[in-house]
Amino acid sequence: MKPFTYERAADARAAVKAAAETPGARFIAGGTNLLDLMKLEIEAPQHLIDVSRLPMAAIEAEGEGLRIGAMATNSQVAGHAEVRRRYPVLTQAIVSGASGQLRNRATTGGNLMQRTRCPYFYDASKPCNKREPGAGCAALEGVSRETAILGASHACVAVHPSDMAVALVALDAEVETLTPSGEARRFPLMELHRLPGETPHLETHLIPGELITAVVLPPPPEGGQRYRKARDRASYATAHASIAVAGGKVALGGVAHKPWRAVTAEAALAAGASPDEAMTAELAEAQAIGENAFKLPLTARLGAATIREARGETP
Amino acid sequence: MRTTITVNGEARALDIDPRTTLLDALREHLKLTGAKKGCDHGQCGACTVLVNGTRINACLSLAVMHDGDEVTTIEGLGTPEKLHPMQQAFLSEDAYQCGYCTPGQICSAVGMLAEVEAGLPSHATADVAQPAAVDGAEIRERMSGNICRCSAYPQIVAAIEAVAGGKA
Lengths: 315, 168
Fold this sequence. Notes:
Mean pLDDT of chain B: 96
CATH architecture of the largest domain in chain B: Orthogonal Bundle
Largest sheet of chain B: 5 strands, mixed
CATH topology of the largest domain in chain B: DNA polymerase, domain 1
Strand content of chain B: 5-15%
Strand order of the largest sheet of chain B: 2-1-5-3-4
Order of helices and strands of chain A: EHEHEEEHHHHHHHEEEEEEEHHH
Helix content of chain A: 25-40%
Number of strands of chain B: 5
Distance between the termini of chain A: 47 Å
Shape of chain B: globular
Radius of gyration of chain B: 16 Å
Low-confidence stretches of chain A: none
Strand order of the largest sheet of chain A: 4-5-8-6-7
Radius of gyration of chain A: 19 Å
Number of helices of chain B: 6
Number of strands of chain A: 12
Strand content of chain A: 15-25%
Oligomer: heterodimer
Low-confidence stretches of chain B: none
Structural class of chain B: alpha+beta
Mean pLDDT of chain A: 97
Structural class of chain A: alpha+beta
Largest interface: A-B, 36 and 40 residues
Order of helices and strands of chain B: EEHEEEHHHHH
Number of domains of chain B: 2
CATH superfamily of the largest domain in chain B: [2Fe-2S]-binding domain
Largest sheet of chain A: 5 strands, antiparallel
Distance between the termini of chain B: 45 Å
CATH class of the largest domain in chain B: Mainly Alpha
Number of helices of chain A: 12
């Protein structure tokens, strides 16, 4: 690990101020992803601002919805009585990711900010545009089994690894932040992450030093909810493909650089299409780059089965 | 950096580089070598300890972030004279071969049963709104963050079932 200095933020305003003023500063909360990458020197912050003890871990009612503090751990969110009862798709998504130990430490804000698990991003001996802009992408000619089929670019085919974020997108969650100048802003979580384009090193629309303070859920939509994930192992593995269904809302995971809101499938379902037709429509623009070709039929079938399951039909 | 962590009931003052993980602080600075360094990346679970009663990977946490926390390692769970019920169950069920992963397995199992008791669902829970049972499928899913390369898994599940059954 490269040397760094460390401070524990007294409050959120002090944290964003320090982040704006200190070169090479990063926030750390659970640290489960950041420390892993720091050990490999893929991340090398010069200064860590510990936000883990900021009083932002509450999960409380907001109107008819629910406000989840950014420091609430994955386990706290998944185990919260209101989440289990009213937003089961979120609990299902969270408990299908990582391990018990990691979920106990990983936070809501950190989960959204985690980096891709693309093996070439992790392998410093191979070119990666995300690690080093302009270096090239080794995944294009390499082991491409886990790469994106939607919204990828010639610069990057990595996928976003979060399960939680896929459910949050299907639930129409909003993200609340504090900017370095101390302003609070709130916007749809669907707009947090970017597609890779020519700049895959830019992963979110947050401005440098901006801190996620909460995720806000509107009341759950009418209709059933379900999260399903296809992966190599029965547990503790990232998704080949995953899908969150909440009423008429659908989001996909493991297939794109961001949690993928399936707006085409949603429109098709709303117009009376069958789940299979809706998934076919959603994947019309999907592109395989070789070894990931299996993801197209997998996503179509998993998606259709999960939509049926959420409706209470036979998968 | 000055950091004080209560380890196995005793306040321990440390002066450490911020890069020191909780695992290295325990093993290298406090000479508590029960928690093991397997992968050092949160994938194997050999470093599992309880922090304020909750199981975490000690390798993926900075010691300076645990100032004021209460950490329990395998050394604090029981003693050779008075074993923790989970330690006794691992002996009785022959739930290990080489033993390298065992401290992490035992700390993880103790933390895991507390999670079940608190009502936390898992990927194996059919209806996440309902309390989970402690059966083989639930135990296997909830223990998936602990690898045993000797593959003593059937006995590990049996040991945990024995402790969970004793509580019921």
